[in-house]
Amino acid sequence: MQSRSTPSTRAGGRPRSTEADTAILEATRQALVDLGWTKLTLGDVATRAGVAKTTLYRRWAGKSELVVDAVAELFDELELPDSGSLATDIEGVVLQFAALLGRPETKTALMAVVAESTTDEPLRERIRASIVDRQKRLVLAGRARAQDRGELPAEPDTAAAARTADLIFDVIAGAVVHRALVSAEPVDAEWAEQFTSLVLGGLAAVSGRGPAAVPSAPDTAP
Amino acid sequence: MQSRSTPSTRAGGRPRSTEADTAILEATRQALVDLGWTKLTLGDVATRAGVAKTTLYRRWAGKSELVVDAVAELFDELELPDSGSLATDIEGVVLQFAALLGRPETKTALMAVVAESTTDEPLRERIRASIVDRQKRLVLAGRARAQDRGELPAEPDTAAAARTADLIFDVIAGAVVHRALVSAEPVDAEWAEQFTSLVLGGLAAVSGRGPAAVPSAPDTAP
DNA sequence: CAGTTACGCTACGAGCCGTAGCGAAAGCCA
DNA sequence: TGGCTTTCGCTACGGCTCGTAGCGTAACTG
């Protein structure tokens, strides 16, 4: 959660103001809302946060790193609600993620930092650690819970299980992002329902034999 | 394909140099390779193309529009190979798209312009018209072909058919982009195969009853 | 030939970047 | 208490990019 790794050498000396940290990250999110990624400048963020511009540069290497940390905090909200079935679990996660992508801060920032990360390996790693892994945990938790319920079979082959989890994760996160940001169409309950039935049906096909229970067509239209 | 809509009022006067157009777009792609999206400047592109900087500003509103046009040309390469079955058609498209995303120009540019488009509605429309629709056509063509083969049932409900096509498109494009750019893991034949079987299995579940032929588990592991 | 539009070139104010240097503040430790 | 260390706010700076204005010239039309 801390911006830098270790405060360099030792303890001793004036400690970094944690209030400044929270003020800066909050100011960054607000600046994203008001200006968007491109027009956001570090000088403006510093003014909003009530700190000196040099303080920003002492803690973050640049705009990308700062924004990653700022939006990463929003991903703490993501949870896996125990809704009783795998289908409703997936729908819940999809709608939560969509709500996050609906906010102007994340909407304008997420794709931008990913674009940056294509030519900046450390940045990619930072995104993976503070954002992507946080989402992926939901997929793993959802599967474990479904296996406890008996909705999904246990997978003794750990390598294959990891491959499948990666696949499912890319499908869910990718589809939601694409629908929300590229197609720019609403990710509502109806879409989540149809998408979930696709994932569940696909899960049956991809994990060898079919799972314990997959509805053929839930209740989209009578 | 032309940068601007109509050359304003009338014909008459010196025509725009089409050679300059191609030189600028090619220079833009090369600059994307060498510098990446962020460090790319219009002044640099103008120098590479051998034209004046003012010429660039006369034709494009800004960096985003120019880059969209530059990478859009690359999407002309996308085709739907008639491979004989829906499964191999999908795998082919996935691998083609992945190859496109593997190129450094598109890798760094695509996410960046989409990020821009979240706060720039005309830009989003430009992207849709020159890039997204070009991809979506492949999905529609693939479905039509599969219906001709008898692999998929005809869909009398055109509204539902459109919804399903949109869903499938977001799933395919989103998953490939997420795998390639966010997870940053290879989109190879093995992944394409597993992903395709997921899509086909999901297609069976989402389009009411099952289609004519869906393999339970192709040949991923013996 | 006159009329119209695109072109290359130069120059400019404006804005942001990222850093250096300073004195003061805020903690630790003897 | 005094010394040591680190962070802080502030100011100032060179360097770069932006986007535009103005000019004379080139190319094509009627």
Automatic annotation (TrEMBL), chains A, B:
Domain of life: Bacteria
SUPFAM superfamilies xref list: Homeodomain-like, Tetracyclin repressor-like, C-terminal domain
DNA-binding region(s), chain positions: 41-60
Chain positions covered by the region annotation Disordered: 1-20
InterPro entries reported for this sequence: Homeodomain-like_sf, HTH-type_TetR-like_transc_reg, HTH_TetR, Tet_transcr_reg_TetR-rel_C_sf, TetR_C
Keywords: DNA-binding, Transcription, Transcription regulation
Gene3D superfamilies: Homeodomain-like, Tetracycline Repressor, domain 2
Domain HTH tetR-type span(s) in chain numbering: 18-78
Transcription regulation among keywords: yes
GO MF annotation: an example: transcription cis-regulatory region binding
A Pfam family annotated for this UniProt entry: TetR_C_11
Protein name (Swiss-Prot/TrEMBL): TetR family transcriptional regulator
Phylogenetic placement of the source organism: Bacteria, Bacillati, Actinomycetota, Actinomycetes, Kitasatosporales
